[in-house]
Design brief:
The protein is mainly alpha-helical and about 190 residues long. The chain contains eight helices and no strands. One of its GO terms (biological process) is phospholipid biosynthetic process.
Amino acid sequence: MTLVDAPSLLRVGPLLTVPNGITVVRTLAAVVAGVVAVVCASMTLLVVAYGVYWLGDMLDGWAARRLDQETRAGAVLDIVSDRACTAVLCVGLVVLVPNTAVVASVFLPSFMVLDTMLSLAFLCWPVVSPNYFHLVDRRVWALNWSPAAKALNTAGVIGAVAVGQYQWALVLALAVLVVKLWSAVAVARLLDRP
C-alpha cells in the first residue's frame, strides 16, 4: 500500500503489528545497550547497540512490507524510535570518543530537528510513509529516503567515524546538513502550493 484514500487518513493504525513490535524491541534493546555501554565505558557494547538499532530498523521495515502491515502510525513510531536510538548512541559515542564531538554537533541537530521534520512531512500528503514520498516529490525522496540516501545519510557518517576518519565524517555530516536544508526549503514550497 502506498497511497491512502481520504477516509484512511483518519485511520492511522492498527498500532499492534509485528513491525511495530520489532520497532519497540529494537529501540529498547539499543537504548539500554547504549546506556550500559557508556556506564561501562565499552566501545564493543556501543557497536553492538548500533548493530541492534540498524538491523532492527531494517527488519521492522522489511516486516512491514512483507506482511503488508505498513501504517502511518508505524511510520511515525519508526521515526520517533530512530531519534531515540540516535540520540543515545551518538551521545554515547561522544562520551567514549571525544574526538567525535565536532561531527556530532553537526550531525545530531541535523538528524534530530531537520530530518525529523522532513520525515514527518509525509503526514501532509496521502502517503503511508516517507518511503513513498517519491509520489509527492521525487528529488526530495531520492535525497532523503531512497535506499542509497538512507545508507549515506547516517551510516556514511558513522562509518567514517568508525574507521577514525573524523574529517571525512565532518564533511559528510555537513553535506547531509546541506541536503536537509535544501529539502526543507523544497518541502516548505510544496506546502505553500494551493
